[in-house]
Amino acid sequence: MAGGVYAGERKGCVILDVASNDEVNRILLALPFWGLLRWTVIPMEGFRERAAEERKAVEAMKRMMK
Questions:
Q1: pLDDT tens by residue, the chain, 66 residues
Q2: Count of domains observed in the chain
Q3: What is the dihedral of CA 17, 34, 3, 23, to 10 degrees?
Q4: Rounded distance between C-alpha atoms, residue 29 and residue 22, angstroms
Q5: For residue 41, which of 65, 61, 25 has the smallest C-alpha distance?
Q6: Within 10 A of 27 (CB to CB), how many other CB atoms are there?
Q7: Which residues, including other chains, have CB under 8 Å from residue 27's CB and lie 6 or more apart?
């Protein structure tokens, strides 16, 4: 989806839109240099999805306060 390198560093970032962790593994293992680099995978959630979960949590707290 997106990616780039950090300014002034020998590091980069890649953003993937995948259905599962297994898919991330398949993509990384398919790279010819995958074993030469150290990878950190950080799952992310979209802003809309997170906002919806936060709204649910607020509503649950409001119900508990009554």
A1: 788 889 999 888 889 999 998 999 999 999 998 888 888 999 888 899 899 999 999 999 999 998
A2: 1
A3: 0
A4: 10
A5: 25
A6: 13
A7: 16, 18
pTM of the complete model: 0.60
Give the containing element (helix H, strand E) for 13: strand 12-15
Domain hosting 50: range is: 2-65
Bridge partners, residue 13, by sequence: 4
Using DSSP, state whether 43 is helix, strand or coil: coil
Would you state the pLDDT for residue 23? 94
Measuring CA to CA, which residue among 32, 28, 30 is closest to residue 41? 28
Q: Give the CA diameter of the chain.
A: 59
The one-character DSSP state at 60 is H
